[in-house]
Amino acid sequence: MNILEKIIFIKQKEVSKNKILHPIKKLENSSFFERKTLSLVKNIRISHTGIIAEFKCKSPSKGIINNNTTSVEKIVHDYESAGVSGISILTDQHFFSGENENLKKSRSIVSIPILRKDFIIDEYQIIESKSIGADVILLIAGILSKNQINSFSKLAKTLDLEVIIEIHNEFEVDKITDNLDIVGINNRSLQTFTVDYDNCFRLSSKIPNNYIKIAESGIDDVNHILKLRKQGFKGFLIGEYFMKEKDPGKICQFFLESLSKKILMNR
Fold this sequence. Notes:
The structure is a single chain. The protein is an alpha/beta fold. The chain is built from twelve helices and ten strands. The chain has helices spanning 3-21, 24-28, 40-46, 72-82, 93-96, 100-107, 123-131, 146-158, 199-203, 222-230, 240-243, 248-265; strands at residues 51-55, 58-59, 63-64, 86-90, 114-117, 136-140, 162-167, 182-186, 212-216, 233-238. An eight-stranded parallel β-barrel has the order 1-4-5-6-7-8-9-10, surrounded by five helices. A two-stranded antiparallel sheet has the order 2-3. The radius of gyration is 17 Å and the shape is globular.
């Protein structure tokens, strides 16, 4: 059993448990459930940089990334102050030390879109995403069938959630369906968790032009982003590079300032 298979096995048990502890009727009574969501698509389109900053303390490949005492509230506030287009919050507990509570806390603090980053395998999790304050969900092509992606994205739209489909290889391009807003290309293999920095460049031309393209994983260099922009990428999800530092928000601000200068110089 590889890492991804372990994640899905545990996620299935977790979802089954949550359905009993937090039934859908309870989720629908959440204070966040009726709120008007914010558009990550719109923010990326009007942004100079398109950075989506992630709050992530741990990963299966790196182990503990950030174990200092800085609160999620301070980090997401600093991310927003730095000028990011959106914030990604890991909510998987077992493998990433994430919590739904981190997203709820963040939603009460920031006024920009929040992506709920998790391994969504059940419609229940989409309703749950809305109930904890998410604006965007992630559907991972490598763990879902095309039919699942189609039905999950339709449900998301009824809840006013935007949808990112994450692909890792050319075969998964065929799983792109209607009702999706963003196509994310992940440089990290879900089987081995190794990073291939050329993956985004290989797959970029395969993505239909009517979708916003974002690049994910292994992004830690302004010049790398400039090259990705030339390939049509509008958004860039960065987590580890910021989170491995003592003050993620400060590093994020420096990065955005540097990127903005480079973009202006290259016009």
